[in-house]
Amino acid sequence: MSELLSAFLGALVGGFFSLCAARHSYRLAAEEKALSEATLLRDTAKLVIAEITTAFEIYMAEYGSELLEHPPGAPYVSILPIGANPFPVYDSAPACLSRLDPDLAASLVRLYLRAKGLIRMIELNNRDAERARDYGEEKLRHYAHAIATPPDEAATQQLQELFDTEVLNNAEILGMGSTADGMRGVTSEIQLLLASVQSRVAALAEPTAKRANR
Predict the structure, then answer these.
(1) Local confidence band at 8 (pLDDT 50, 70, 90 cut-offs)
(2) Measured distance CA(198)–CA(139) in Å, rounded
(3) What's the Cα-to-Cα distance from 136 to each of 70, 160, 179, 203, rounded to whole Å?
(4) Are 45 and 204 in contact, with CB atoms under 8 Å apart?
(5) CA distances from 120 to 16, 41, 183 (A)
(6) Among 93, 97, 169, which residue's Cα sits nearest to residue 138?
(7) CA dihedral 188, 193, 196, 200 (to 10 degrees)
(8) What pLDDT digit, counting tens, does each position of 163-203 carry?
(9) Which band of pLDDT confidence, cut at 50, 70 and 90, is reported for residue 162?
(10) Around 189, how many Cα atoms within 13 Å sit in the side-chain half-sphere?
């Protein structure tokens, strides 16, 4: 009887410790998963900001800074090549970013929507700039044919001025002045949004494991 009781107590104690070990392992696994998810969320947010910051810096260096200084209402006859998929990181991370603070997530969405809207406006401006230049080149060929002899320096300068005038006139007809004004407004808005979101993402706390009492 005593042997049976000892075996029963041994099994009971062994089962208790096995249960404790299982619960401990479960807590550790849950904590590691939560830490991994929090780290992934923070790293993704930082990567998304790095993506749009880099894109915006390139845009400002090649196009935006000059655009902001352009006279209001005047066409901006300049072409900026745009890639087919300029924001691959953001486009692949909506499910992850949805777990951010709602206000920060909303700001990120607004930032990217405005950036994509700006891209659409640049594409429209690119198309109209090409049309205006094509028209100017057509007129230039017409003027050049009217010159019997090869143009000297003065005639070449005159042809360049005629080309620029024709391009500008056609750009105005195409409404490129309104497009340029719209791009300037969106560019200024993106500058403010980006600065705000950059500081908030930089302030995100470093994820740490929350150890429960054992």
Answers:
(1) very low
(2) 48
(3) 21, 10, 20, 52
(4) yes
(5) 65, 29, 10
(6) 169
(7) -160
(8) 888 999 999 999 999 999 999 999 999 999 999 999 998 88
(9) confident
(10) 16
Burial class (CB in 10 A: 0-12, 13-18, 19+), 61: exposed
Phi/psi region, residue 115 (left: phi>0; alpha: psi -120 to 50; beta: rest), is alpha
CB-based burial label for 199 (10 Å; 0-12, 13-18, 19+)? exposed
Q: How confident is the model at residue 98 (pLDDT cuts 50, 70, 90)?
A: confident
Q: How far apart are CA 189 and CA 61, in angstroms?
A: 17
Q: Contact at 8 Å (CB) between 112 and 55? A: no
140-146 contacts at long range (C-beta below 8 A, 24 or more positions apart): 140/166
pLDDT of residue 92: 84
Rg for the chain (alpha carbons), in Å?
32
105: which residues sit within 8 A by CB, 6+ positions away?
97, 98
- With H, G, I as helix, E, B as strand and everything else as coil, classify residue 87: coil
Contact 164, 88 (CB under 8 A): no
